Amino acid sequence: MPSRRNVLRLLSSTAGGLLAGQAARAVSASSQAAPEPTPEEASVQRELDERHRQGGGVVRLAAGTYPVRRGLVVRSGVTLLGEGYGTELRAGFPDGQSWNTVSLESYGEIASLRINGNDFDRTAITNGICGQWGHEFIKITRCWVHDCSGYAIVLWPGTAHCIVSGNHVWHNKESGIELFESHHNTIEGNVLRDIYGYPFFIWQGASYNTIVGNTVVDGHSFAGIKVYSEGKPCRHNTIIGNTVKNCGPRSEPYTSAGGLGLRQSGSGNIVTGNTIDSCRGYGIDLNYAGTGHVVSGNVVTDSTLAGLRITKTRDVQVSGNIYTTNATLSPHYS
User: What are the backbone angles phi and psi of residue 199, rounded to the nearest 5°?
Assistant: First the structure.
């Protein structure tokens, strides 16, 4: 697996600015000046800041389209609440720059609105909703996020005790939902589809998270749910009751996970009660995945390789899984 970009890095907590690490799209921090906000955006940000100064509260956005050019920041103790799909924050960042459409501080919430990244094929790097580095108790619920060239929803390093629930994410170039060195979060009941990067990515030390009841369909490149460590082990994540269908690389050779994968992923992760269907590659794949994991009660159907592969991984408890019409024998050990 190639090195994971140089990771989108937070440049400005007030503007929501990011540096993209992928070489072809990298933007230097020194050359990226914060663009002026749109009038609509500036008005919303003033309301968010005022609620924060008053000790917290709700900022309500009526249905309509709100252009965003600099990035909104939901301050601590404030909720940004829309009226559903018709409340649209439409990103329009300058070409060659990289920004968050919405960033959240500790105890900030966003709910019931749509983030239109408006950027799938442009040179700006647009992220949807981001929990800011080191902030806690963030809630992201019942939102629609689509057409981002960066991440749709990401919890940055040091975030913890957050809830990401009931969101719909589609047609995204990078991760659909990503936990990057983020801990003790609950990610529940989200629907991800048509994702070109990692649909659901738990990586670089993300630990003690509960991933429950999510649906991931029609991934284009990677496993529907991936736990991966690049030097920092991911430990004690519980991945339970999720559905992954039609994910994995679109062309052969299929050599790794198409459904759910753990690689270099620490210890004590639990994979139980998931349904993996029609994925390209191994249905469930533990590949150099550390030690002490549990894989139980999963149903794996129609994988192009084995329903379960365990390679160079120690002390895995495997029980009660059902493998049906996978291409090769399950489980496969090496």
Answer: -60, -50
Structure confidence at residue 180 (pLDDT) = 97
Give the closest residue to 129 by CA, choosing from 183, 94, 82, 62: 82
Measured distance CA(190)–CA(150) in Å, rounded: 18
Q: Say whether pTM exceeds 0.85.
A: yes
In the chain, the number of structural domains is 1
Cross-strand bridge partners of residue 164:
140, 187
Helix (H) or strand (E) holding 35: none
Average pLDDT (160-177) is 97
What is the DSSP code string of 95-114? TT-EEEEEEE-TT-EEES-E
Domain hosting 153: range is 9-333
**CATH number, position 114:** 2.160.20.10
Q: Using CB atoms within 10 Å of the CB of residue 325, give its burial: 0 to 12 exposed, 13 to 18 middle, 19+ buried.
A: exposed
- Describe the strand order of the beta sheet including 317-319 as a list of residue ranges: 57-60, 78-81, 109-111, 139-141, 163-165, 186-188, 210-212, 238-240, 270-272, 294-296, 317-319
